[in-house]
Amino acid sequence: MEVQATWERYAVIDPITIGAAISGATAAFNTIKQMVNAGRDLESCIGDVSRWMKAASDIDQAEKQAKNPPLFKKLQGADAVQSEALQVYAAKRKMESQRAELKQYLQITYGHQAWADLIQLEGRIRKERQEAIYKQQEARQKILEAIVIGVLGIVSFGIFFWIMWLASKN
To answer: How far does CA 43 lie from the centroid of its chain?
Structure first.
């Protein structure tokens, strides 16, 4: 829930958000492991599975944005982009490890169908999040970039005409 609120506040993924996503995923993952080890059924840990999947979806989105960073991120320099890309890469690897372990836990405890059901649930959650949150973020980012480019264009024209006015006075 905290990770989702973090994503809704920020249009551009930053290192803090990536860290929050991986922390949320790890906490949910550890809770799932404890519940499975304690003999709980899958339905009792579905909230934590959903929380883990949302964090995994957030990290996948961060990977997409790291591959194609917004204009402002590119203007910050290569160091910022590379740093974020490395952080996303590390988070992605951790999620893959957790996914493999979660698959093993669920298949051993509940059978192969449990993992198939979980994958189906994950697909639905990703689709919903992409439609609801990520599209809004991309739209906000594009609007912000268009506004900044427009303002820069107006300022540039203003400076150009001011220089022309000064030149015509002399």
So the answer is: 26
Q: Kindly report, residue by residue over 109-160, the tens digit of the pLDDT.
A: 778 888 888 888 778 877 887 787 778 888 888 899 899 999 999 999 999 9
Angle at 162 between CA 158 and CA 164, to 5 degrees: 120
Q: Cα 59 from chain centroid? A: 5
Q: Given pLDDT bands bounded at 50, 70 and 90, which one contains residue 51?
A: confident
Q: Can you tell me the distance from the alpha carbon of 12 to that of 167, in angstroms, rounded to the nearest whole number? A: 43
Return d(Cα 147, Cα 129) in angstroms, integer.
26
Q: Compute the average pLDDT of residues 36-63.
A: 80
Contacting residues for 41 by C-beta, under 8 A, at least 6 apart: 110
pTM score, whole prediction: 0.60
Structural domain boundaries of the chain?
A: 2-169
